[in-house]
Amino acid sequence: MRKVSFAEFGGPDVLRLVDAEEPHAGPGQVRIAVRAAGVNPVDWRLREGQILGAHPVELPSGVGLDAAGVVDEVGEGVEGVAAGDRVFGEGADTYAEFAVLSAWARMPERLTFEEAAGYPSVVETALRVLREVGVRPGETLLVSGAAGGVGSAVLQIARDRGIGVIGTAGAANQDYLRGLGALATTYGQGWTERVRHLGRVDAALDLAGSGVIRELIELTGDPARVISIADLGAPELGVRFSGVAGNMPDALTEAVDLISRGNLRIPVEKSYRLDEAAAAHVDSRAGHTRGRRVLVV
Predict the structure, then answer these.
(1) Does domain 2-107+267-296 have CATH number 3.30.230.10?
(2) What residues does the Enoyl reductase (ER) domain cover (predicted)?
(3) Residue 249 — φ and ψ, nearest 5°?
């Protein structure tokens, strides 16, 4: 089978499309014929050699955590799923023609494989940071970097829970944020004053790592009510950095419920072929994404 791999840490040019042995489902796992794989910031962070405790890397390494596809092997002890089922979930080395998943759910009927591949890690992260920041119904959440995959999920899940949302993004994404139910404003000089004009801020999320932690603390009045998933320096200012994944099966169950009720939709901004994985990483690292980027197999 074909698989994206890297034998050394470095820039996107270290990625190679190679021939590899097919993986097989172990106990508690399923194998899928991959139709699409999600592209996440953690993918290029690991490729660069950033130390992320939850994801140790041994070289040579495959790439990718999220995927959607068709089950073709079911491991020992697995029930409720069979060969031929369309599923999406999280596993390892998903930039490949076949991948093993450790957590999965049946795809909602309304989703394509490309769309489904963009949900697992994004929804888990959104649910986790909403829980960790402690925002409650009736309060207002400020989301910095709101137009990307996690931001898109946070805005919609928060609104479903009765939480008001303010989102910051580039000028081109203002209408997109409003379409997700957020009050929207742009980055740049004077952005904190623009946020204040939109209303009170009870809690805040930094999803872009754009150096705004001090301002988010100022707006909320309490570093305990700010969470970052992108600024490794946040703890120096008393802000929690959230980087360890929570319960993926529960996240997938909630994602299916939200999607099925029409209360969660994350668009695919761009799709790439497996041999375009390096370009996908370049674009993901550059940011300014509206929704998700995925690889199509």
Answers:
(1) no
(2) 10-295
(3) -55, -45
Instruction: Give me the residue label for tokens 């707006």.
Output: 219
Strand partners, 124: none
Q: Which CATH architecture fits 124-241?
A: 3-Layer(aba) Sandwich (3.40)
Alpha carbons 54 and 125: distance in angstroms, whole number: 14
Structure-block tokens of residue 189: 């000089």
pTM: 0.93
Task: Specify whether the CB–CB gap between 10 and 63 falls below 8 A.
Answer: no
Residue 235 makes CB contacts below 8 A (sequence gap 6+) with: 241
Give span(s): CATH 3.90.180.10, the chain. Answer: 2-107+267-296
Lookup: tokens for 296: 């199509």
DSSP assignment, residue 11?
A: S
- For residue 165, give both structure tokens: 């949302």
As a whole number of angstroms, the distance between CA 200 and CA 70 comes to 46
| Helices 149-160, 120-133: crossing angle, 10 deg rounding | 60
